[in-house]
Amino acid sequence: xxxxxxxxxxxxxxxxxxxxxxxxxxxxxxxxxxxxxxxxxxxxxxxxxxxxxxxxxxxxxxxxxxxxxxxxxxxxxxxxxxxxxxxxxxxxxxxxxxxxxxxxxxxxxxxxxxxxxxxxxxxxxxxxxxxxxxxxxxxxxxxxxxxxxxxxxxxxxxxxxxxxxxxxxxxxxxxxxxxxxxxxxxxxxxxxxxxxxxxxxxxxxxxxxxxxxxxxxxxxxxxxxxxxxxxxxxxxxxxxxxxxxxxxxxxxxxxxxxxxxxxxxxxxxxxxxxxxxxxxxxxxxxxxxxxxxxxxxxxxxxxxxxxxxxxxxxxxxx
Length: 318
Ligand SMILES: Nc1ncnc2c1ncn2[C@@H]1O[C@H](COP(=O)(O)OP(=O)(O)OP(=O)(O)O)[C@@H](O)[C@H]1O
Known about the structure:
The chain is α/β, with parallel strands linked by helices. It has 2 domains: 10-228, P-loop containing nucleotide triphosphate hydrolases (Rossmann fold, 3-Layer(aba) Sandwich); 234-301, Alpha-Beta Plaits (2-Layer Sandwich). Helix content is 33%, strand content 28%. The protein is built from 10 helices and 14 strands. A 6-stranded mixed beta sheet has the order 6-7-8-3-9-10, sandwiched between helices. Strands 2-1-4-5 form a 4-stranded antiparallel beta sheet, with helices on one face. α2 (99-109) packs across α3 and α4 runs parallel beside α5 (173-188). The protein is elongated, with a radius of gyration of 23 Å. The structure holds adenosine-5'-triphosphate. The site of adenosine-5'-triphosphate has 12 residues, from β2 and α1. It holds the Pfam family ABC_tran. One of its GO terms (molecular function) is ATP binding.
């Protein structure tokens, strides 16, 4: 008999959240299994923070359901929050206290105490790579060290689901690496991790599955390789310029190496091209002959950035 599939730690179905006329989250569904790291990859404003705020029970959903380990989540369901660790973008630590004192303080707030708390504090300090700085005042910590401490606070109560909202934004490379290593270690221990980022390298390195999010919707979901297969082995080329973009796209579609060409956002034609480095000269000639005054040519070989461009016609980064 095959093993029954492990129950999802997190199940999100048909989630919607509006702010006035803006639908910030527009029918988002995904599931995360124990030990799985699931990434929400999308640019600023895609709806990632709003999604995780609903999952953490901080704001209500206008529609849809969320369960964590089978229990419903929402602002009125308080007990289920013990199963969730949320590490928000904003830091919440006391600068006058040491790292250890901060952890003890937040641990007590979570109802921990005694030897159990002391042991968990020691474990967490080691996991986030701050054990050698445990008794230093946090006001002297770098931004990255403070962020690692914030992650430690989210982990103290040993949640089944850890939610990290863009944890490496603005941190030094050493802390960034420590954060990525901590997340890898947690997943080995069986924790489910929901990781939001707009850095495709982090999504590629950490996440077992990735949802590409834009305009409040999941545009595609899968492993990195699943997503890259969607490109069909072609490169993406972006030709930015002034002129009749539709006419240029139509002319470029006639070239043998070009599989697709669309007039995209931001004064650019976005193309899917076989072996773009060899074809680029003919693309430039074709676009120029079609009357486009080119000011930029960008080739993106298959990676998640290219998948994002392919799905949305936009670059992942600002
Ligand atoms: N409280 C709010 N009131 C009004 N609009 C909001 C509110 N919170 C978020 N939004 C809007 O909802 C959209 C999604 O924002 P959200 O913060 O979820 O995106 P994000 O992908 O997490 O980006 P970021 O990394 O910048 O937080 C944005 O257009 C944002 O301006």
